[in-house]
Description:
The complex is a heterodimer of chains A (318) and B (250). By secondary structure, chain A is mostly helical. Chain A is 77% helix and 3% strand. Chain A has 14 helices and four strands. In chain A, helix 3 (38-63) runs parallel beside helix 8, helix 4 runs antiparallel to helix 5 (92-117) and helix 13 packs antiparallel against helix 14.
Amino acid sequence: MTTFKKWRSRQSAPLLLVAVCLVMMVFLSIETRSFFSWKNVVNILEANSYRLILACGMMCVIASGAIDLSTGSILSFSAICAATVLQAGAPVWAGVLLALVAGTAMGTINGLLIQITRINAFIITLATSFMYRGLSLMVTKGIPITKLPQSFRDFGCGDIFGMESGVTMAFVVIVLLIPAFYFMRWGHYLTSLGGNPEALKRSGVAIGRYRVSAFALMGFLSALAGIIITARLNSAEANAGLNMEMDAICAVIMGGTALHGGSGSLPGTVIAVFLMGLIRNGLTLLSVSSYYQQFVTGAMLLCAVVAAELRERKRRIG
Amino acid sequence: MMNESIILEVQGLTKRFGHIQALDGVSLEVRAGAITAIVGDNGSGKSTLIKILSGNLRPDSGSIHIGNKTCPGLTIPQAISLGIRTVYQDLALDNYKNSVDNIFLGSELMQGPFLNRRAMRREAEKLLADIHVAIPDLTEPVASLSGGQRQGVAIARALRRPGKLLLLDEPTAAMGIQESHSTLEMLAGLRQRGMTQLIVSHNLHQVFALADYVYVMRSGRVIAAAATGDTTAQRLPELILRRESEAEGL
Ligand SMILES: Nc1ncnc2c1ncn2[C@@H]1O[C@H](COP(=O)(O)OP(=O)(O)O)[C@@H](O)[C@H]1O
Ligand SMILES: [Mg+2]
């Protein structure tokens, strides 16, 4: 096989997504006037910045053979931590730092629980997702924390390069993750953790450190997404981020990362987030009811996993 | 053979899993530059012994002398730093990664903080050529390789960092005749180059020609030991088949 053919067969999931995206873009630019306007492009980027951040973190967790169902809950509780101290008059940096520390701590707790008990990540993070959401409810008693200081809103959704700051944050996250995941030990060991943890351990690698780091990163990124969302809505509430882990998992799987881990695709994940964003945006521009979005997204995920499964089977036979 | 030095000596190792006594006071020694074989039926405790020597399991009692150190048990990093290299029965390969990545797993060549893939690839080609393993495409995931090639990758990984002792657990168990033959040849080649080996097998005939010393295990105990050059070695096959009580007389 030529190098190009090999590359094509290995990157078939992202390439397929790019093709679907292009078709959608052509269709939308013909059907609607506003699709290719700069304003709409910015709009799509802004609306998907925090989704990108969450999906990239989730890709690392899934590549390591685990899953994190507590993402949305961590997002909510870390944002509430920040909002609470900000309302009490703390400076912006303190609120942001508190949110990031809280998020990282919650993620680390997930990782440690999984590492120590050796219980499935699905079960552990399902439990902690209820607990973290419960903390949010306990602290706020269900009442949203609103009217946050303008300086905090400037940080979370102020203008950088003509776009909300969240876009820059997502960009920085992706730019840092590319070398860490593909070209450094960290990502190399994360994927081996998903591929064969026993092999990694027997090579003398302290695997616990890597498992925990994936969850700590996910917690940190959840908090970052929480800051963006809270700044945009000017409100922190207990049911913020509901089901956002599902959106992230959906994008990761659609992007060609297998649910069992062992390898992961950052480009695929990024493209899948944009595809889902395009669908939302397109349906809005076409004035199709938002009720259809869920159905379309679900159907696309179904197509993506069926295509991936067929590809895998063909490879096994061929 | 007399003046070969002993590089590993274990004494009175015991290991219990619940009510199963997997090892019941195993003592043996491994001489530098020689191939020592451990043979025994399934369940006789061979893999348990290997796992203790490679740091995967801690013995309940007994001691391990290696180099000039004596310890009650090892961790995996300790075993590695003492120069013990292990080829596990299941090979311990990451099926999603390619041959190069598997050979260097845990001991990657780096360039600053980054993986030096080019250097690793060059080195891997050399390692595989040394042990006469032909893998046409080193960038293919190892899941797509044959049993013999996978074994070659696992052995290349064990040889990648200079070591004192190579442990091999059933190196030919999952292989056809052709592949077993070439693997055994590979091990003989390593012996020529002075690599000390401890090979576990349930098939005496396979290792008899290869090994310098043979230990026979049964029910967690060493029931016989012999140098393959000695005349007593001719009695080993029947010993393995005979009942335990009769074996005591040797
Ligand atoms: N992790 C374990 N838990 C319980 N029993 C075990 C475990 N590992 C090995 N055993 C038991 O110990 C005995 C020796 O096993 P093993 O060392 O694998 O034998 P061999 O490699 O010679 O076939 C067997 O009876 C086996 O069932
Ligand atoms: Mg065994």
